[in-house]
Amino acid sequence: MAYLGVAKNTIEVLKKYNFIFQKKFGQNFLIDTHVLEKIISQAEITEEDVVLEIGPGIGTMTQYLCENAKKVIAVEIDSSLMPILAETLAEYDNVKVINQDILKMDINRLVQEENEGRPIKVVANLPYYITTPIIMELLEKKVNIDSITVMVQKEVAQRIQSKAGTKEYGAISLAVQYYAEPKIVANVPPNCFMPRPNVSSAVIRMKLHKTPVVSVKSEEQLFKLIRASFSQRRKTLINGIGNSAELHYTKEQALKALEEMGLGENIRGETLTLEQFAALSDLLQDMY
Ligand code: SAM
């Protein structure tokens, strides 16, 4: 059995099928067995797990997943990869390949149909052009997930993991940390991929909270507030709230809520923790 994590085997398969890389699909295939093994071990895949893989490519990581998991559902947009996957995954009977755009799928329904009542694990070397929409879709739609272990651009991984007061901290940090505990588990240089991407990558694991770390009266309002606070980074929080098209509070109301929290009028969104955003959201909510 030819493991595709070995560069020579990947090259052979690509040649055999005259495969042409599609830049628009973010195709950078892994060719490093150490990185693949690290992803599998950090994702803590066991024989009981149902795994959703987004973008299997030619099946490099899928092979590893099939050997470690109970079942693998692999969703791939590029139909020219279907005959290749049929060959590279031929010896596994625990994989289901779906030729679809993951962003157009009802992931909740897919998971309910496939997971046999257990939370699934998501593992992927993500196409970087849709990293944030995919992660947010999985989290916001409250798909029944245990953990998400994904390869992303290094700076995105750092933003996701960063804490209040750092320069990387932003709406994505807060959004992910509301739902999950993120941790960068590996740094991956460009030479581990074919073709080599222009950026460095990192594997980040997001373990979903079983119970929310903060509770708010309205999740919808909390996320509107977070977006408003980071839409104009150099502006004060009061201006961000007052100018938001999504929120309907005056600057005076925002100031009053901040004062109740013991915060000054010049405070900026990037210094507030998730807990403080939640408290502010509830205080504003009470003003209606
Ligand atoms: N998993 C493979 C690996 O590690 O070698 C390939 C990873 S490559 C970075 C990303 C894969 O996602 C490509 O195969 C690409 O065609 C696929 N892809 C891109 N956009 C997608 C989408 N919207 N839905 C499903 N798959 C997508």
Structure description:
- This protein has 288 residues and is α/β, with parallel strands linked by helices.
- 40% of the residues lie in helices and 18% in strands.
- The chain has two domains: 7-208, Vaccinia Virus protein VP39 (Rossmann fold, 3-Layer(aba) Sandwich), CATH 3.40.50; 219-287, Helicase, Ruva Protein, domain 3.
- It has a seven-stranded mixed beta sheet, with helices on both faces. A two-stranded antiparallel ribbon has the order 1-8.
- The mean pLDDT is 95.
- Bound molecules: S-adenosylmethionine.
Write the layout of secondary structure elements.
Elements (H helix, E strand, L loop, with lengths): L6 H10 L12 E2 L2 H10 L7 E5 L5 H9 L2 E6 L5 H7 L6 E5 L7 H8 L5 E6 L5 H10 L4 E9 H8 L9 H9 E9 L4 E2 L6 E8 L10 H13 L5 H7 L7 H10 L13 H13 L2
Parallel strand pairs: 2-3, 2-5, 3-4, 5-6
Antiparallel strand pairs: 1-8, 6-9, 7-9
Helix pairs in contact: 6-8, 9-10, 9-12, 10-11
The structure holds S-adenosylmethionine.
Q: Assign the CATH architecture of the largest domain.
A: 3-Layer(aba) Sandwich
Shape: elongated
Structural class: alpha/beta
Helix content: 25-40%
Tally of separate domains: 2
Number of strands: 9
Beta fraction: 15-25%
